[in-house]
UniProtKB/TrEMBL annotation:
SMART domains with a match to the protein in the record: Lactamase_B (SM00849)
Name of this protein: FprA family A-type flavoprotein
Keywords attached to this entry: Electron transport, Transport
Annotated family: In the N-terminal section; belongs to the zinc metallo-hydrolase group 3 family.
Cofactor: Fe cation
Transport is among the record's keywords: yes
């Protein structure tokens, strides 16, 4: 049976949610699931905006067939060719032989790569600023390369002032009937997942997200229909403000995140002692994570949120403990910038992790590495408490100042 909802009088939500998938892109844990949004516009011409992941194919087909209610499909707007949205394109093209695929030139090439067939004869290739009238509605195409892939475009419906934003303004999390931001409490229930989605999926492309935000600022937008998560029709400013910060790598909260790797609890102990000192000095909302226990996607998201990072890790095989190294590689790949970082290392005979962590941090943009580093020899020693206190002082002054 279909499970659709009306977005406006002539726009129907035909997407669905997957609560079984354990990892998005087979990489990021999604304990709350994920939605794959898609929309049908019933104008003089009919339009389908993107498709869905094949995991929800049965529900998806029911929804599209119901929404079209026997009408042919005239246009399928393909904004993004990642398989979480393009998996059903081939099926739709076969099911609706009259439909034209409206997309960027790059998407045509990607279609051939994914499906092994040439869709050029059925493609209506659009470029920046092109418009398509469907009757009462005029769709305006805006290129958004690298948000999140190079072929991405977004679409603005001039009549209803709706931005179909592709992956932008999306989030992890399944939808449960409530598909609009004013039907859920996004800030408290969804924001952590939205940040984790942004930081890990498009975090690397801050410059390109900024370019899209500037284009969007010239449009009169009353509703944002993303490909994941709720539709924004009430508090658009909430996520726009976050996107402004995330895409310019500006921290949201002035506080300290301590991420530690520990083998037998000795490096963890130093992290605990430092956290207590920071709290004594008035630092609030300190976040602390064991990098072996917390998924790296959460560590990345928290690093996008917090202004100051303390990274503590033992030396392992003459290198950095592997989970810490993976986290550092990730925040580097995702272009994290503008953070103040303190480093603590540990080693029973040759502590070199600190030096190597600093080396990785120095390869990142606009990172301030505190000179006050601490090197533990197996376990924190009494005579190192002064140095730890000095580090806590420096961090507290910056955070509280
Ligand atoms: Fe939701 Fe980049 O795909």
């Amino acid at each position: 049976m279909h499970s659709t909802r009306k977005v406006t009088d002539d726009l129907i939500y035909v997407g669905g949610s997957d609560r079984r998938l354990s990892r998005f892109e087979n990489l990021f844990p999604i304990p709350k699931g994920v939605s794959y949004n898609s929309y049908v516009l019933l104008d003089e011409k009919t339009v389908l905006f993107d498709t869905a992941d094949e995991s929800i194919s049965r529900q998806y087909i029911e929804n599209v067939v119901h929404a079209l209610n026997g009408r042919p499909l005239d246009y399928m707007v393909v904004q993004h060719m990642e398989p979480d949205h393009c998996a059903m394109i081939d099926d739709m093209l076969r099911r609706y032989p009259e439909a034209k695929m409206v997309c960027s030139a790059k998407a045509v090439g990607m279609f051939a790569q994914f499906y092994g067939t040439d869709v050029a004869a059925r493609a209506l290739v659009v470029k920046e600023g092109d418009k398509l009238s469907t009757g009462e509605h005029t769709l305006h195409f805006v290129m958004a390369p690298m948000v999140h892939w190079p072929e991405v475009m977004v679409t603005y419906d001039e009549k209803d002032k709706i931005l179909f934003s592709a992956d932008a303004f999306g989030t992890f999390g399944a939808l449960a009937g409530n598909i609009f931001d004013d039907e859920i409490t996004f800030d408290t229930t969804w924001m952590n997942d939205a940040r984790r989605y942004y930081a890990n999926i498009v975090g690397k492309y801050g410059v390109q997200v900024q370019a899209l935000l500037k284009k969007a600022a010239s449009l009169d937008i009353e509703m944002i229909c993303p490909l994941h998560g709720p539709i924004w029709r009430k508090d658009l400013g909430l996520l726009l403000e976050k996107y402004q910060k995330w895409s310019t790598y500006e921290p949201e909260d002035k506080t300290v995140m301590i991420a530690y790797a520990t083998m037998y609890g000795n490096t963890e102990n130093a992290a605990n002692v430092l956290a207590g000192m920071l709290a004594d000095k008035g630092v609030k909302n300190i976040a602390m994570y064991d990098v072996s226990e917390t998924d790296v996607s959460e560590l990345v998201a928290e690093s996008f949120r917090c202004s100051h990072l303390v990274l503590a890790a033992p030396t392992y095989n003459s290198g950095i403990q592997p989970k810490m190294e993976a986290y550092l590689s990730d925040i580097k790949a995702l272009n994290l910038q503008n953070r103040t970082v303190a480093v603590i290392d540990n080693g029973t005979w040759a502590a070199t992790a600190g030096k190597q962590m600093i080396g990785m941090l120095e390869g990142m943009k606009n990172m301030t590495i505190l000179e006050n580093t601490i090197s533990i020899k197996s376990a924190l020693a009494e005579n190192q408490l002064g140095a730890l206190e000095a580090l806590a002082d420096e961090l507290a002054k910056q955070v509280n100042g």
